[in-house]
Amino acid sequence: MSRFQRLVFDLASVAAITLVLSGSVGAETDKGGEVAFITGGVGASGRSEIEAVQDQYSLKLVFAYTNGEFLAEVKVVIRDAAGNTLVSTDADGPWLLVKLPAGSYQVAATVAGETKTEQVSVPASGLKTVNMRWKPPV
After folding, report:
1. Which letter, b or e, does each residue of 8-36 get, where b requires 16 or more Cβ atoms within 10 Å of its Cβ?
2. Predicted TM-score of the model (pTM)
């Protein structure tokens, strides 16, 4: 690899890291770094960014109205079987990916004061997808 090619590669790597850390994907951790999660999925590029990394996570939450319109700014709380809060965040896009070990969890998601609750079993391998839907405002 020539010096020029190496420089271009290095710059592209820095740009990619900056993109992820700048919040376009919304990489975060919660509870002292024990549970990693990302939010996003706004627009085609946002969905592509999430899809590119979703195989690294065990749970995918999708937020939308019943008419299919995606939602953002959803307040999400995930608790383990003992009731301990593992994640508490505002999803800035319609998708939330979470790295959780296999087990049973309660997911509570709130939009405009209406909370939906789901019991979710996360498998030992693969990605569990949960669609959470709300009626659109009148």
Report:
1. eeeeeeeeeeeeeeeebbbbbebeeeebb
2. 0.76
Structural domains of the chain, with CATH: 26-134 (2.60.40.10)
Structure-token pair, residue 130: 């949960």
pLDDT in tens, 109-127: 999 999 999 999 999 999 9
Contact yes or no for 130/60 (Cβ under 8 A): yes
Q: How far apart are CA 63 and CA 8, in angstroms?
A: 38
Which tokens is 103 given? 């087990």
Tokens of 65: 């109205």
Residue 29 backbone dihedrals phi, psi, to 5 degrees: -130, 160
**Which helix (H) or strand (E) is 88 found in, with range?**
strand 85-91
DSSP reduced 3-state for 7: helix
